[in-house]
Amino acid sequence: MSTTKKNWLFVFISSLLLLFFGFLWVGNFSPPIAKVTHAISRTTLVSVGSVFSKGAQSIQSFFSNILQYPSLNRELTELREENKRLHSEILIRDAIQQENKKLSSLLRIPEEHNNLFPCHILMRDPMNPMNFTINAGSYQNLSENTAIVCPVYVSSTKTHFQLIGRTARVGFNESDILSLYDESSHISIRNIRNNVIGTLSFDKDQNILFVKFYQEQDFQVGDVVVVSNYSSLPNNLIVGIVDQIEPSSSIHYTAIVKPSIDMKTLTEVFAFQ
């Protein structure tokens, strides 16, 4: 360090010491100045103490919240479990109401339609679960190519039925059902909107029901298709609704049809006698 810097440092430290002892001297012999000095010191210490006091309170509150966290977390977990339980109860109640409504409708059908026989699905074909076996056969007056249906809309005046399939083999007390979702199934259908006739087929690779047509206006999305008069099955049974139109590289179009119910979940059906 240079001599000049050492001198300046010595002068600075000496000045600070003189000021410090001067304040002490003034405090001993000048009461007003001492009071001012004391007030300034007191204010500074109070402010610093206040800051440390607030900091201590914050730290205390923080650790208090940490100690309460397990209890709060446990209560939150209990509330979530209770919410799940209540939600499950609501779902079960709604399912029971829907099932009761469905059963009431099913019980009305044989009374209103004496040519329909209620059947239970015994088992499904492992190779094609859409095909199944019912607990009715020749003993219940069923024959081959009998329409198998399920109610989709029940009003005060009429019940509308979805075509599920038809009997392929009839035993004494059981029958094998060939559903719409089988490559050997081909149903003559009619578009309700314009009475255009087509043939409903199943594409196993794409897993779709489809109708091929040649005039662009013949089928549109939202069209309802039913069994036509050209079919050996009862006419006007609902087959499905046009869900999509696909253009083709050839001269025809393809209307993809979706049934109005999920056939994979069926347990009860009706057979025409």
What does this structure look like?
This protein is of the alpha+beta class and 273 residues long. The chain has 2 domains: 1-112, no CATH class; 115-272, Rod shape-determining protein MreC, domain 1 (Thrombin, subunit H). Helix content is 40%, strand content 29%. It is built from 2 helices and 12 strands; from the N terminus they run ααββββββββββββ. The protein has helices at 3-29, 31-112; strands spanning 116-124, 132-134, 147-154, 159-170, 175-179, 187-191, 197-203, 208-213, 224-227, 238-246, 253-258, 268-272. The strands form 2 sheets. A 6-stranded antiparallel beta barrel has the order 1-2-5-4-3-12. Helix 1 packs across helix 2 (31-112). The protein is elongated, with a radius of gyration of 44 Å. The relative contact order is 0.10. Mean pLDDT is 79; it is low at 33-41.
Compile the SSE list and pairings.
Elements lengths: L2 H27 L1 H82 L3 E9 L7 E3 L12 E8 L4 E12 L4 E5 L7 E5 L5 E7 L4 E6 L10 E4 L10 E9 L6 E6 L9 E5 L1
Antiparallel strand pairs: 1-2, 1-12, 2-5, 3-4, 3-12, 4-5, 6-7, 6-9, 7-8, 8-11, 9-10, 10-11
